[in-house]
Design brief:
Blueprint lengths: L9 H4 L5 H4 L7 H26 L26 H8 L10 H9 L3
Length: 111
Amino acid sequence: MTDRGPSTDQSTTRPAEPLAARGAAATRPRWWWDARVLAAVLLATLGATLAWGLFGPEPAIVVSPTTTFLTAPCAADGLPDYEAALIASAAPLPSAEENVAAELLLTFWPF
């Protein structure tokens, strides 16, 4: 075996610097900073979008045959009166002789 000379390993020729001497920035890779900036930008964009949706301008309500199925009856404020429209669209009520619900109630109700 021949002697190749002193070792070229860096750990034996130069003592390692303490982490405090290098600084905290040297301990993390560059992509760590980029990921934090990207996350901050995405979070700010999400917050701005949420704030715009909550506090931004309200669109006008348009009631017309092309945008709303119910155009009549309308309430005092001009919007459709859904309760009146539901009552108007319901079939006429059966008479008491044709209504089986009253007979079933008397039959099955525990008296």
